[in-house]
Amino acid sequence: MKSLFSIKSFRILGLAALLLGGQSCKDVLDEKVIASIGNDYINTPKGFEDAVRASYAALRSFYATQQGLTMTEFGTDLYATGSDGSYKGFHFYDTQLNSFVDILQGVWEELYRGINTCNAVIDRAPTATGISDALKKQRVAEVKFLRAHYYFILVQQWGGVDLRLTETLGPTKKTSRATEADIYKAILADLESALPDLENKAKSSDYGRATKAAAEHLLAKVYLTKATSSAKATDDYAKAATYAQNVIANYGFKLLPDFASVFAQGAGEINDEVVFSVQYTSDPLTNAASPPLASSGGNTGGNNLHLFFGMQYDTQAGMTRDIFYGRPFRRLRPTTYALETVFADRVNDSRYKKSFRDTWLSNNPGTYSTAFDKSKATVTFKSGDTAIFIPGYEMPLAERAKKPYQVLVPSAYSETLFLPLSKFFDPLRPDRTYEPGSRDYLAFRLAETYLILAEAQLKQGKTAEATTAINVVRRRAAWPGKEAAMEITAANMTMDFLMEERGRELMGEQMRWMDLKRWGNLVERVKKYNPQGAVNVKETHNLRPIPQTQIDRTEKGADGSPGFAQNPGY
Fold it and tell me: Where is this region: Disordered (predicted)?
């Protein structure tokens, strides 16, 4: 099994009894003891290690899941809706995006469940027995990294939230909203205090655990994000650059020669570019979804990203659904801006060809009437013949007529037929309907570290240095022999260019909504590049609505006002 570090869904009563807003059950009195493990189990060597492993589990509530994807890629400049699926309010910014949306509740609760497990490990570490001081320090540092990571997701999505840095031992109605500054202070304190005790290497000897390199990458990203928040400080960009440079220089990471190989499934997921990954396996028990998300349909377990980018190839001439081409849920299709502007250069830049699937080979031979390609009336296929090709430009009708397959041109793109992102497909699933994928999710990779560095340097006015950093990423993305053509000069190094470069390199990797929010242009770019959201999007949408369950379960003020305030506009 590729992932050496097994994260288990671990629950004991002392860890599962979260603050009221983090309860998975609707009624606080409906407390279910789901394990017979005693409250002191965490003080034993095995219990302590199990609790640390459990602290990682909440990563799988956000990364490589429908809910995490919905909260990060929907409603941006790069993606529009496909024909199927729920949660389209995140695209349209309409009344469907409200405080009752189940995936918002599910992610909120799972992140706080993870935070409380981290708190339990940190609080109880001094009394844990049978563990060396050095190992105990390393494990506490790991959970500080995780606690910071969870709060970073929360503050980006919701702003100031409830800040709890000690274990909550039982249900409570007393919660309050901290300021963004308080949240960032806690995040940075956790990460910076964790650095000395994390493994000082690129990859943990127990692969999947947090390392010093992962913490420095996260610190770089936190400072970059903080720099445009209400908590900003004058040295945020300088600190972001320093931590990014540390990751690049000190651990032996390197970009893989081929962009496509970064996403090779199986053993390829453990490679020299990966700084930190969220672990998934083919074991359905290990990958099981947690109750609030499973009940909402938000996560069926495993890495689900293979489901959401596919087009409806399986009803087209010569094709039927199979494992290789995937189960197409048709949730996301690239915007015109993404395809025609961000990925406009296909002569020098390999990332268009290596990010999207443009060819399908027939797995259902026979003669068929054509559907979307009006250049011919019928097509006939043998097994393995090309059945569908997407050239990426408006191929003339006469040229299409000469092709023995259907050609999908941009004018025929629709919510069912479009260019699908291919980097997350999972042909190792056991059958064609199986949803839980086994890929690790590459949360931090070196290419993004270079892009963080370039942005931080550009914001400091260090345009030449930013150009050098971004050119490292661009040279790797070049077709062989096109490296020099891919390099830009300082005159080209602008924020607009950097925004597009992040789009090319990180398309679909659960970052874009947070990027637009950080840049302060979410509303502007949705209005300009995403017609579906343009009508309704407004500054309110730089934050998500607080889940109604959190508000309802919080003790009201003396004057009857909500004890946990909703974000403005919801």
Answer: 542-570
